[in-house]
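During the reporting period, our protein records have gained a structure token line. A sample record is set out beneath this paragraph:
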Amino acid sequence: MEYASFLRRHIEQVVSLTDEEFDLLLPYYKPLVVAKKQLLIESGDTVRAEFLVVQGCLKAFMHDEDGRQHIIQFAIENWWISDYPAYAQQSRGDMCVQALEPCVVLELSAADKETVCNLVPKMYIFHGRKAFGGYVALQRRVLSMMKSSPKEKYELLLQQYPALFQRVSKTMIAHYLGVSRETLSRLERK
């Protein structure tokens, strides 16, 4: 897959680049082909990279002490994913990141991100806006989890990301919403 044009379009949604600038930063975004069910990050790993989804669907999740899975994030094309608390600290993480379909991602290590931003300073703006957008989405999700009923959470997810329902199992949607599979089935019938 031609990932260079994908990456350039993705970046230029936020900042414009000259051909020379893009040529400088391109080698730092490393393409990876990821098989379905493959883990990009395992719980306990030191997290040194984040991933831009070129093609496919991934999830970030963790298991609680009772073994229940809690899905923190889904990521489809044009979304970034990692265990961000561990990535920010370059420490061991608590989450896993797993491919739900065959995927192509661009891996960007924290060290390479710093290099890219130093080589092309407007990339600080790009990565800052992407991080801020992720923070806003996460805060909206937390607020929704706190104040919304299961039905409202389900309807909001369906409204915002209808394509996700075609790509992700109902059980995973339930784990993401923090409801049982049975509750999700009842919500779908209403």
Remarks:
- The chain has nine helices and eight strands.
- The chain has a mean pLDDT of 92.
- Strands lie at 30-34, 39-41, 49-55, 58-63, 69-75, 80-81, 96-99, 103-109.
